[in-house]
Amino acid sequence: MVRIKDVAREAGVAPSTVSLVMNKKGYVSEETRRKVEAAMKKLHYVPSGVARSLSLNRTNTIGVIMPSAAHPFFGELIGELETALYNAGYKMVLCCTHAKDNAEPHFVEMLKRRNMDGIIMGAHSLDEGLYDNLERPVVAFDRYLNDCIPIVHCDHCQGGKLAAETFLRHSCRHVVEIVGSSIMKTPADDYHRVAAEILTSQGVKVDRIERPWNEPSYASFMQIARQLFADYPDADGILGADLSVSACLYVAQERGLRVPEDVKLLAYDGTLITQMGTQPLTAIRQPIKELAELTVCKLLAMIKGEQDSQPWMIAPTFQPGATC
Amino acid sequence: MVRIKDVAREAGVAPSTVSLVMNKKGYVSEETRRKVEAAMKKLHYVPSGVARSLSLNRTNTIGVIMPSAAHPFFGELIGELETALYNAGYKMVLCCTHAKDNAEPHFVEMLKRRNMDGIIMGAHSLDEGLYDNLERPVVAFDRYLNDCIPIVHCDHCQGGKLAAETFLRHSCRHVVEIVGSSIMKTPADDYHRVAAEILTSQGVKVDRIERPWNEPSYASFMQIARQLFADYPDADGILGADLSVSACLYVAQERGLRVPEDVKLLAYDGTLITQMGTQPLTAIRQPIKELAELTVCKLLAMIKGEQDSQPWMIAPTFQPGATC
DNA sequence: CTGAAAGCGCTAACAG
DNA sequence: CTGTTAGCGCTTTCAG
């Protein structure tokens, strides 16, 4: 392996000069630069990223913790985060917590070991205190971690409002919400709360049915959908995450219900799957790309010790479809 | 920041002894061990991963290059790779090449900089020679890179056979294959080739229609599907990747065709999306989890300089559905 | 503008 | 069983 020292010797200069050339720092005469560059090329020199990180106390790497990469929402989010980080010169190391025993503390440990310059946390955390006293910055994505960790999220109150308005516009009288496990409090709870408040105030009956904790299999979505139609056969509006609502579409058809004539389905998230299949889902879309960019922007600002004046929240949009 | 030296001083021992304790190496007396552990705890010592990597010339990090994380197949694959790597004590740094200018060379550069111990490459590469003369191991996932880089992939010949048998079983007379861009030669081409050979030999007419290069938007899938039905109105069997076939299901319905009565649809891959919607897609499923585990196993064996006697290929399975 | 030298924090021989 | 010492490869003052 060829080191900076070898390049220096070959070029007849000191290692520090080679460093200056590599990093385009300071003043180096044109001639010296050329000599150094020639030496680097001749020796096929490739600098060590690790040594550099040790010296700089910075790895240009961000840890991203998400429940799963296979889930359409998180898959899309991970992709956008990676792109935003890449554009800022950072690498992304990914940790998926679902189906792992206790990956999360293990991963946070890596942050402490200074393997990463910061963390974006988008998984559920049941581990109180895990994020206290960290020396390096953490930004939460749509999650409450502790009082000190800032959160980037979609304006779910606005989302709830859009949802309620949609059901009201179609004169629904009985809306059922499929909500996540109540073990977990998240900013996304707001859309269910706000939608229910508005609908109730307009005399619409609202029920909710809860999904099991940490169970992302499609079969479980189907099961909830079946239970929903069994428990609330007169429901004429359903609100839930994309996958939940997608399952409802299937079960509605199974039961001979017409969508949207008999029952309106409104998906929350608006990922790719809402566009697929024979009947695209009407949805409230979270602007995933913008959320990812904002998250990265906020985290990098924290790393640089800067202030960033953008708000921490982005509004969702209404995405037309064939189910409302 | 507290360093190993500080712990050593606190415990009244040498840094090397602290290192031995941390890594559970060599022989350390019970008493010394306790003193060291107490000192570590007292000082809230967290070792530096970067310094360790520099010393060991090993980062316990693997680079994974994929086209996209938002695509159902790659999302699932990425998740399984991450889990397999995690279980082996490795972190995954992810690079998605789609929609980035030339991320791939940039990423390979990181491998050269020894930021990673190896690479799993699952993206298309048009960059000839990029993978030559690498000092650290690379395993390709379902891609041809160069003559030296081994490939883990699904047994696509078997997949093609399964597909052909399915169409024959349903007495199809005219099958259309939706194939990827011919710019790219991949192991997956085999299933189209083999299916076509078998079908043709049985007197079935086979046509193919090509998807544009590197264009993963759902709209483009819809466009191809429309073109397919326009060009081959008498097709009674369609074979293609999940998303392609999903789009065909939509368009078939749009044109008033009954599935599977008028036309059989067979999806290749069998990701989550085949299970969704009102009509689950019949599919040839690639065993993504097993493929991911095999890929990781092979790469880690290369890193350790070991031999691994497992074959580099895994057979696909038939997944029943409602479209054949 | 360039070079010498002192780190960055950990590991691994090798003595003792 | 433990301490000394010499790296790992790069960056960064600080003289000159």
From TrEMBL, chains A, B:
<dbReference type="InterPro" id="IPR046335">
    <property type="entry name" value="LacI/GalR-like_sensor"/>
</dbReference>
<dbReference type="InterPro" id="IPR028082">
    <property type="entry name" value="Peripla_BP_I"/>
</dbReference>
<protein>
    <submittedName>
        <fullName>Transcriptional regulator, LacI family</fullName>
    </submittedName>
</protein>
<keyword id="KW-0804">Transcription</keyword>
<keyword id="KW-0805">Transcription regulation</keyword>
<dbReference type="GO" id="GO:0000976">
    <property type="term" value="F:transcription cis-regulatory region binding"/>
</dbReference>
<keyword id="KW-0678">Repressor</keyword>
<dbReference type="GO" id="GO:0003700">
    <property type="term" value="F:DNA-binding transcription factor activity"/>
</dbReference>
<dbReference type="InterPro" id="IPR000843">
    <property type="entry name" value="HTH_LacI"/>
</dbReference>
<dbReference type="Pfam" id="PF00356">
    <property type="entry name" value="LacI"/>
</dbReference>
<keyword id="KW-0238">DNA-binding</keyword>
<dbReference type="Pfam" id="PF13377">
    <property type="entry name" value="Peripla_BP_3"/>
</dbReference>
<feature type="domain" description="HTH lacI-type">
    <location>
        <begin position="2"/>
        <end position="56"/>
    </location>
</feature>
<dbReference type="InterPro" id="IPR010982">
    <property type="entry name" value="Lambda_DNA-bd_dom_sf"/>
</dbReference>
